[in-house]
Amino acid sequence: MSSQQHVAILGSGNIGLSLAKGLVKSGLWQPQQITLTRRNVDAMAEYATQGYQTTTNNMKAAKRADIVILAVLPQQLNKLLDEIKPAIKSEKQLLVSVISGVSCEDIRSYLEMNVQVVRAMPNTAIAIGDSMTCIATDNGSVKNVNLVKSLFDTVGVSIQINEELMTSATALCACGIAFFLRSVRAASQGGTEIGFHAHDALKMAAQTAKGAANLLLQLSSHPEQEIDKVTSPKGCTIAGLNEMEHNGFSSAMIKGIKLSAEKAGDLYKAED
Ligand SMILES: NC(=O)C1=CN([C@@H]2O[C@H](COP(=O)(O)OP(=O)(O)OC[C@H]3O[C@@H](n4cnc5c(N)ncnc54)[C@H](OP(=O)(O)O)[C@@H]3O)[C@@H](O)[C@H]2O)C=CC1
Ligand SMILES: O=C(O)[C@@H]1CCC=N1
């Protein structure tokens, strides 16, 4: 990463701040190269003391930046674009949007400008450098896509996908964090009912979930292959698993992901 480059994160909430911290933690960016904006500037006081530029002025932040990251809520985007439009030069800045349900074309057509736009869909594990981030564009150069990929690779794992799959990626990966967290919580509640104190049950459930994910990631195996190793004939695992399936476990997850994907596609349109 060039030490001359500057990034502006417009909308420094959960995702924006996590990205900023991840970039600095990677050692590739200095806080001085990152401008953070939000309307409540006082909420960023701690970041100002660490050397980040903090401001409410989106226009000035965008003007100075090579990479402008849009990280407000979908319903806050149009106002933000109105503010930064005078500062955007199609040949200078690259726009990176993490906003759900907003296409690259939506952004260009609102700005009435042929600027390069790359979308990135991280999840909240970005805060600990463990995000699954999907990246897509319809007009970004290979160089710029690789640049965005390298940004998000510093805070987890990233893959490039077709833009039409971005709402699906939102449901599976960004919303998905919440789905898996709820599963872990439910497992811990079961654990408490069968005898463990709540904090022990949660730790045991979380480590077990981590182990399950790592079995798939490190062995490149299929879930059913790993499940078959656990389910002894006439054993207790298959009894529990089948009971969960009779109660709609897989079906509930599939239906939830489908509904989230539908909703993700409508987030921006709903605000028109
Ligand atoms: N949360 C998640 O897990 C994920 C979220 N996303 C997407 O990322 C985006 C941000 O989500 P998230 O970080 O959770 O939301 P937050 O509400 O935490 O962050 C949005 C931030 O934008 C600021 N903001 C609002 N309007 C303006 C403005 N005009 N100028 C500057 N700052 C502004 C708000 O602060 P203030 O009110 O002080 O201005 C707030 O801090 C959303 O579009 C979401 O769809 C994507 C992937 C995962
Ligand atoms: O729930 C939401 O709308 C946002 C987008 C993906 C995760 N959180």
Automatic annotation (TrEMBL):
Ranges where the Pyrroline-5-carboxylate reductase catalytic N-terminal domain occurs: 7-100
Catalytically driven reaction(s): L-proline + NAD(+) = (S)-1-pyrroline-5-carboxylate + NADH + 2 H(+); L-proline + NADP(+) = (S)-1-pyrroline-5-carboxylate + NADPH + 2 H(+)
Locations listed in the record: Cytoplasm
Domain of life: Bacteria
GO biological process, one term: L-proline biosynthetic process
InterPro entries hit by this protein: 6-PGluconate_DH-like_C_sf, NAD(P)-bd_dom_sf, P5C_Rdtase_cat_N, P5CR_dimer, Pyrroline-COOH_reductase
Residue ranges of every copy of the Pyrroline-5-carboxylate reductase dimerisation domain listed in the record: 163-265
EC number per UniProt: 1.5.1.2
Residues given in the record as NADP(+) binding sites: 71-74
Pfam families reported in the protein's UniProt record: F420_oxidored, P5CR_dimer
Gene Ontology CC terms, in alphabetical order: cytoplasm
Amino acids binding NADPH: 58
NCBIfam families: proC
Functional summary from the UniProt entry: Catalyzes the reduction of 1-pyrroline-5-carboxylate (PCA) to L-proline.
Name listed for the protein in its UniProt record: Pyrroline-5-carboxylate reductase
Gene expressing this chain: proC
